[in-house]
């Protein structure tokens, strides 16, 4: 077994804590350094991360360039506000470190290409941290649909799908009394629902069905100029669908209200229904309900091995494996997916007049 990869973290919110704990659980990584804009926050993060057994073995930094000189760091996990991902990625790659970048990767497709180009000249890995498409229940669903014989025997043709992901966040719904808007609703931080949670639906759809021929988005634009949510349509043709079929996928995504609707895939022989925390992130159940039946056949594990802050363990295990084994083919598949997602998201955003600071 290879030695754990030395890990550094940028960003000290709860998601970084979750990634560190999950990466330790995966045994593929060992935290070595934490960067924060303030040294006290970095120290607090280290002391408050339960999986760090010896706090003195992890260094705290308030200077990013200094942290990146560390010879014990192999991989940098980037969980800063979206608009900083590119700059932090370029700095980390320039310093010779592999990067794992939180979704939604960066602000536009040119920034994706910029990261890939630099990584290639340096022989480094660049991985976008999509959690939900590394989870076993998603992988089970994906393999059921990818296996042509199994798919045709059990489900028949795919006619379409409805993907639902809407989670209420008051920061979108109302202007704060002190006038200080959250990063996540500001164009200068590459905010908005599509870059926040809509991207999960896009990744789920593209990973499951392939890259569509075209897409459109009808958003509700909020006071700050970003989208509070909206409806997306993805058109698949026989040439573009992974399953060589023509169909349409609809996705509703919002931070202005909650959806309790499941995600459904409509097939010739019945409906696949997916339930979970916000339906597609952390899938709890997947069932197939044949036409004429009121009960479904369970297709997925109802008790996943990891939950809560450890639910990034599957992705950490896979990303650690890819880097340790130098699995360039697996990385290339993830890279292609991430680029296609960003191209589509950028088009959906800009066609609605939503622009980020980095677009100018
Ligand atoms: N995979 C998932 O399930 C998941 C869940 C949540 C978030 N995310 C992603 O993780 C990333 C971070 O999200 P978040 O909600 O944690 O963002 P955030 O709270 O706005 O910022 C993350 C960290 O960046 C630093 N930061 C905050 N404001 C900054 C500013 N103005 N300039 C420079 N640095 C600043 C802060 O760390 P310091 O104060 O220590 O510098 C903060 O802890 C996003 O890309 C988000 O999409 C992913």
TrEMBL record:
Pfam families: GFO_IDH_MocA, GFO_IDH_MocA_C3
Family that this chain belongs to: Belongs to the Gfo/Idh/MocA family.
Domain Gfo/Idh/MocA-like oxidoreductase N-terminal: 7-126
Protein name (Swiss-Prot/TrEMBL): Gfo/Idh/MocA-like oxidoreductase N-terminal domain-containing protein
Tree of life domain: Eukaryota
Gene3D superfamilies linked to this entry: Dihydrodipicolinate Reductase, domain 2, NAD(P)-binding Rossmann-like Domain
Domain GFO/IDH/MocA-like oxidoreductase: 151-273
InterPro entries: Gfo/Idh/MocA-like_OxRdtase_N, GFO_IDH_MocA-like_dom, NAD(P)-bd_dom_sf
